[in-house]
């Protein structure tokens, strides 16, 4: 186990995130913050980086307009970005941070960015998920 795992865990608890799953062997957490609209967010210590990733929605219909809208919105996201899984059908939020000099403010900024994205862009995300 790296020294970063416990540090990240402490930060998540200080930020009042619920740890719904913890995998010591893989050095990852699944967290939620219902008040911020966050559920099943994976926080993975992959030395030298911390990966924060969560599924937002799946798409099956016409993708061109959705992709264009997501790419345009990426420009406005403070931390992190929309990404696709390897199948191109799952839209994820993803951010990476350096573990070596990670502080609580950096992690909080990423989590706040996701919460802001979900609150400001929720109608679009819901409509995309129905296509």
Secondary structure: helix percent: 25-40%
- The structural class is alpha+beta
Q: Distance N terminus to C terminus?
A: 42 Å
- In round numbers, the mean pLDDT is 93
**Domain module tally:** 1
Beta-sheet strand percentage?
25-35%
Radius of gyration, in Å, reads 15 Å
The H/E string reads HEEEEHEEHH
Counting DSSP E segments of at least 2 residues, the number of strands comes to 6
Largest β sheet strand count, sense and barrel closure: 6 strands, antiparallel
Query: Could you give the order of strands across the largest sheet?
Result: 1-2-3-4-6-5
The number of distinct helices, counting runs of at least 4 residues, comes to: 4
What CATH architecture do you see? 2-Layer Sandwich
CATH topology (level 3) name: Yope Regulator, Chain: A
CATH class: Alpha Beta
Low-confidence stretches: none
Shape: elongated
Protein name: Sensory transduction regulator
Pfam families: CesT_Tir_1
InterPro entries: Tir-like
Describe it:
The chain is of the alpha+beta class and 131 residues long. It has a single domain, classed as Yope Regulator, Chain: A, CATH 3.30.1460.10. Helices cover 37% and strands 34% of the residues. It has helices spanning 3-14, 64-74, 104-120, 122-129, and strands at 18-23, 28-33, 38-46, 49-58, 81-84, 90-98. Strands 1-2-3-4-6-5 form a 6-stranded antiparallel sheet. A hairpin with a 4-residue loop joins strand 2 and strand 3 (38-46). It is elongated, with a radius of gyration of 15 Å.
